[in-house]
Amino acid sequence: MQPNPAAQTELAPGGKLRVGVNLGNFLLVNKDAKSGELRGIVPDLAQELGRRLGAQVQLVSYPGAGQVADAGATDGWDVGFIGAEPARAAQIAFTLAYLEIPATYLVPAASPIRSIAEVDRPGIRIAVAARSAYDLYLSRSIKHAQLVRAVGLSGSFDLFVADKLEALAGLLPRLATDVMLLPGARILDAQFTAVQQAIGTPKARSAGAAYLSEFVAEIKASGLVAKLIQRHGAKGVSVAP
């Protein structure tokens, strides 16, 4: 699949592909403690995209998804790997999702809450990582409970514990780790959403956006996404349908 000249110019001007990466999503990217090198599903996909564009890849890292989204409006990157959300789509043209990650709640020991539906009630306080994709989803959908935001995944866990909140919202694979730190705590069955991990480019780059959509369709159909999930041991994520 060869990019047309317009797409190549929009995505990799001057032969360099700047890729926005969310360091907050440990399932998709990790930084090597010694070398500082970024590894994981997103860096591997970025290199594959760069290879097809004939471009040098520059990974531009940000601490969270909100900062990646902000940088898309200020020419901070050419392509961003980020959860597709309506609140972000005003500035970013997204592909369909290449993989998805279930999001649900963790509740403390002795909590009377037994189901997802029981969380959205008056008096329930939900710890959530600010500006994450699931925070944006909950901001639209929660009607009665209170969202209490913290910086990052670890910050939301610490807030949940310190302030003895009634629920912690998060990605299921991370909650599966958190629950082991809290005797008696439970992860609720089912999910309130599945975060749709996609690839985006600034809205004006229509030729580039069209090429990225073709790229995502091809890497899913070829089995590349599935192979990378297995290679990096990304438990709890799956290829998006």
CATH architecture grouping of the largest domain: 3-Layer(aba) Sandwich
Give helix and strand order, one letter per element, not per position: HEEEHEHEEEEHEHEHEEHHE
Return the structural class.
alpha/beta
Shape descriptor: elongated
Q: Compute the number of strand runs.
A: 13
Q: What is the arithmetic mean of pLDDT? A: 96
The gyration radius over C-alpha positions equals: 18 Å
Give an overview in words:
This protein is an alpha/beta fold. The protein has two domains: 5-99 and 196-239, D-Maltodextrin-Binding Protein, domain 2, CATH 3.40.190; 101-193, D-Maltodextrin-Binding Protein, domain 2, CATH 3.40.190.10. Helices cover 33% and strands 27% of the residues. It is built from eight helices and 13 strands. The strands form two sheets. Strands 1, 4, 5, 6, 7, 8, 9, 10, 11, 12 and 13 form an eleven-stranded mixed β-sheet that branches. A hairpin with a 6-residue loop joins strand 2 and strand 3 (38-39). Helix 1 (5-11) packs across helix 7. The longest helix has 16 residues, at 206-221. It is elongated, with a radius of gyration of 18 Å. It starts with a helix and ends with a strand. The mean pLDDT is 96.
